[in-house]
Design brief:
This protein is an alpha/beta fold and 244 residues long. It has 8 helices and 12 strands. The chain has a 6-stranded mixed sheet, sandwiched between helices. Helix 6 links the parallel strand 9 and strand 10 (194-199).
């Protein structure tokens, strides 16, 4: 039982961005992908989730023994895959409560009792130190960067997938918000769930400790190691990996 990426090649707008990447994420693991801008990290994340803008030209994605390479995004989600996007979209007129109730219902294949659902939502929001009034706001509309990231972690908590791909969840967060988001990720982390954390920086990895760190450059993983690799990158940067 794992999320397996085999020799993945991904193209967008006629250009190959991911160039033969392989990785296996097991339940209970936290793996981090680090790399400079333009290395293909977000392209990988979107391709794994089935975004139609990104074409998989070669390779396979296997989720718990079932190949999902050509499945739609909604089927991947129902199979247990979740993506926290780098730039989550605004959905004016749709409250967080309504959005999440429909999303959870779609995942489980049954409508959610509004009262029971709202109680559970408030419990999760309390864990994330979120004001209950936040649930009444339209999804991401007028949100700060930190609010958007916290809303993504709330979605993660409510949808409860087996594998979470978190694309630069630490982007734009101040220290306090970073700690709260990291706490939410750590609360989600169990022996039955896997987390693929995509980031530029080591700072979130001080709070969410990875089992494996990968360095991605020009669409490929060029080095893998433990948390010490992230600390090395913080000290010396990416240049030596780019020049390799």
């Amino acid at each position: 039982m794992s999320l397996i990426i085999k020799n993945l090649h991904v193209t967008t707008a006629g250009k190959e961005i991911v160039k033969g990447l392989s990785l296996t994420l097991k339940p209970g693991e936290v793996q981090a992908i680090m790399g400079p801008n333009g290395s293909g990290k977000s392209t990988l994340a979107n391709a794994l989730m089935g975004h139609p803008k990104y074409q998989i030209t070669k390779g396979k994605i296997i989720l718990d023994d079932a190949e999902i390479t050509n499945e739609s995004a909604d089927k991947r989600a129902r199979a247990g895959l979740f993506l926290s996007m780098q730039y989550p979209p605004e959905i004016p007129g749709v409250t967080i409560t309504s959005f999440l109730r429909v999303a959870v219902g779609a995942m489980l294949g049954e409508s959610q009792n509004p009262i029971t659902f709202h109680k559970k939502l408030l419990e999760k929001m309390k864990e994330l130190h979120m004001d209950p009034e936040f649930a009444k706001r339209a999804v991401n509309t007028g949100f700060s960067g930190g609010e958007k990231k916290r809303a993504e972690i709330l979605q993660l908590a409510m949808l409860n997938p087996r594998y979470a791909i978190l694309d630069e969840t630490d982007s734009g967060l101040d220290v306090d918000a970073l700690k709260i988001v990291a706490e939410g990720i750590n609360h989600f982390k169990t022996k039955d769930r896997g987390i693929l954390l995509i980031t530029h920086y080591n700072r979130i990895l001080k709070y969410v400790v990875p089992d494996i760190v990968h360095v991605m450059v020009d669409g490929k993983i060029v080095k893998s190691g433990g948390k010490e690799l992230a600390e090395e990158i913080e000290e010396t940067g990416y240049q030596k990996f780019i020049e390799t």
